[in-house]
Design brief:
The complex is a heterodimer of chains A (338) and B (327). By secondary structure, chain A is mostly helical. Helix content of chain A is 77%, strand content 0%. Chain B is an alpha/beta fold. The chains are: A mainly alpha (338), B alpha/beta (327).
């Protein structure tokens, strides 16, 4: 297991280094000139040259890359052209909000997706199965921004449940402010025993998290169903039944455990995919995460910010996949040989 | 008292769009008995209904299957018994040894967990007690490095070791009947022979009855006290193994035995049986074997035969199986 971990971690580091190269080259290849974005359309050539010199753009690409990489490692991710603030602090200040949203969505998706998938597999070709499969297709094909609006109009607008936008009620700042410990408001409120803060965070979290969870629920439910059906037909399940084990044990533990590896793989992939999905959801629900920062940065050719977002996204993607590999090896002893 | 009685067992599957009322009947009117401590061999070619019969005894037929007749363990009816009652019987009173030990164990759990599950399901007790029992059982099937074997995952053990472990698992709750479905077919010949010896030795020690499903006639002869020959879902002949094999009463049994290679056959080509099993046995009016039978007459093609009782506890499903033929 130790060697396995080391190999996977080394591979992850190599991929991360590769993404910094690609990000860097892409940002330089794009025809938009950051100096123009910085100075505006009426900039004089000598001003542009001065900015180029300030940003190091007049040096050779390898030198620029080495400079950039050194900065990354030191935590100097450049200055955002849009906000004139250090990119690193902009990103890491907003990251917890996005991560909290993602974590909530993935928790919902894993619980609901696996449960629905198992039910569909056990009741294969019956009515429940057909309903669940239709729901799964719906979840996968519904655009997040549309589903978000739909939930806002129906659940909040018609039923008056949960909250419309934002991460917390503005008044909470004055009544029961959430003390920042982990950056996850739900967790912080719980740790400090802030009941009002907890409820407020939860009501704000439900709708965006559900919106973001729709796609992963569909994907996970479908994969769980397919994988469960395959495992339920396997010899060792027949053997478990032949030895009189109860169905709860046979289906709920032995079969589900055997069916999990591919589910973990797609869950990891959709989690990484949902990071970009979160950007849309954040815009719809006015969620103070990375999404809004990223979309503004894109529109303004704010290349230090874009590169920062990309590297952070890639790092998240790689970390998730590393986690998937580790979980995979925990779940299936045969993986450790590979 | 007879340990296992299967009486007039018929298994039916719905076949949408098919003939004969939209059903197939891969097992028809099968009657078998297993006495305590004895081994009944169920032999026949692929698709003759051997495995389905074994599964029916365990109550593990596919959900679409419908079974009729009677299956009694010590006189207790199992066919149609409530699922919870069948689950209590499976593993505890009837245990199964599967064909492919490499896939019959849960691939993602060490063997210890799998022994614990079965032992604790039927006998309760702590994990430590179950583990100790598992170690004792493994020693009994001659797997002596018990700690290592129990800590291993199935993919870390050889087929022979796994089949021994599977037999140990089958014995874990001291069942009175073991169903062995082609239990040596996936093993190479020397390992298969070791496993057969092991089974015989354990049977002497524990006195369980065995329903031994196999297509290997030599193996049936080695292990079984009695044998039932299945053809196309029917028992065509049954009797003590020596008598059946030395003087087969049914033409199918004769053909089957003629197809077994022997050491001193001088390189002569093996006999083979022309024709094939009828695609739809329910459409056959007479004897299901008539289309391949060298002795078939008009009677065979028009009227299905009844089981003829022969001397020496034998019977054959053939119009021409009179005592003289068998003698």
């Amino acid at each position: 297991m130790g060697r396995f971990l080391f190999r996977r971690a080394a591979a992850a580091a190599a991929v991360l280094l590769g993404t910094t190269v690609v990000t860097f080259v892409l940002a330089r290849v794009v025809p938009a000139d950051p100096a123009l974005a910085y100075l505006g359309p009426k900039a004089r050539p000598e001003q542009i040259a001065q900015i180029h010199h300030q940003l190091g753009l007049d040096r050779s690409l390898p030198v620029q890359y080495a400079h950039y990489l050194g900065g990354l490692v030191r935590g100097d991710w450049g200055i955002s052209i849009g906000t004139k603030q250090p990119v690193a602090s902009e990103l890491f200040g907003r990251l917890p909000a996005t991560l909290e949203l993602l974590a909530a969505a993935m928790t919902i998706a894993l619980v609901l997706g696996i449960a629905l998938g198992v039910i569909a597999a056990v009741r294969q070709q019956r009515l429940v199965d057909h309903v669940i499969r239709m729901l799964a297709i719906g979840g996968v094909s519904m655009p997040a921004f549309w589903l978000g609006l739909l939930l806002q109009v129906t659940v909040f607008g018609q039923l008056g449940l949960f909250a419309l936008t934002g991460r917390n009620d503005p008044d909470l700042e004055f009544t029961d402010p959430i003390r920042d410990i982990t950056g996850f408001h739900l967790l912080d409120a719980l740790l400090t025993g802030n009941a009002a803060g907890f409820t407020d965070t939860l009501t704000h979290l439900v709708l965006p998290a559900l919106t973001l969870a729709a796609y992963p629920i569909g994907v996970i439910a479908r994969m769980t169903r397919a994988s469960m059906i395959e495992v339920l037909a396997a010899d060792h399940i027949r053997a478990a039944r032949a030895y009189g084990l109860r169905e709860r044990m046979t289906v709920g533990r032995i079969a589900l455990r055997g069916a999990l590896p591919p589910v973990v793989t797609v869950a990891g992939l959709t989690l990484a995919y949902s990071l970009t999905g979160a950007f849309f959801v954040e815009v719809v629900f006015n969620w103070p995460g990375l999404g809004q920062f990223a979309s503004t940065a894109l529109l303004n050719a704010d290349y230090p910010a874009i590169m920062g977002v990309t590297v952070l996204g890639a790092a998240a993607y790689i970390l998730v996949n590393l986690a998937v590999d580790i979980v995979q090896a925990r779940l299936d002893p045969r993986v450790r040989l590979a | 008292m007879t340990l296992l009685t299967v009486e007039d067992l018929t298994i039916e599957f719905p076949r949408p769009g098919g003939r004969s009322g939209g059903t197939t009947r891969p097992v028809r009117g099968v009657t078998l008995t297993v006495e305590p401590g004895q081994t009944l061999g169920v032999v026949g070619e692929t698709g003759c209904g051997k495995t389905l019969t074994g599964l029916a005894v365990l109550g593990l037929l596919p959900p679409a299957a419908r079974a009729r007749g009677s299956i009694r363990l010590d006189g207790r009816e199992l066919l149609g018994a409530p699922p919870s009652q069948l689950r209590a019987v499976r593993g505890a009173e009837i245990a199964m040894v599967f064909q492919n030990p490499a896939t019959a164990f849960d691939p993602v759990r060490p063997l210890r967990t799998q022994f614990e599950r079965v032992i604790r399901r039927h006998r309760g007790g702590s994990r430590e007690q179950a583990g100790a029992r598992a170690a004792k059982l493994l020693a009994e099937v001659e797997l002596h490095d018990t700690d290592r074997v129990l800590g291993s995952y199935p993919h870390q053990l050889s087929g022979g070791m796994l089949q021994r472990a599977m037999i140990a698992l089958a014995l874990s709750c001291e069942p009175r009947l073991i169903i062995a479905d082609e239990s040596t077919s996936a093993l190479d010949v020397t390992v298969a022979q070791q496993v057969r010896r092991l089974l015989l030795r354990l049977q002497h020690a524990h006195g369980f009855g065995v329903l031994f499903v196999t297509h290997n006639l030599g193996e049936a002869r080695d292990l079984c006290d009695r044998v039932a020959v299945l053809y196309a879902g029917e028992v065509v002949e049954t009797g003590p193994v020596e008598e059946v094999f030395t003087a087969p009463a049914h033409p199918y049994t004769k053909a089957l035995l003629a197809a077994v290679p022997t050491v001193d056959d001088d390189g002569a080509p093996l006999a083979s049986l022309p024709g094939e099993v009828p695609a739809d046995v329910l459409a056959v009016t007479g004897c299901v074997f008539a289309n391949r039978c060298p002795q078939a007459e008009d009677l065979c093609r028009s009227t299905p035969p009844a089981a003829h009782t022969l001397p020496g506890g034998r019977s054959a499903l053939c119009h021409f199986a009179d005592p003289e033929v068998a003698a």
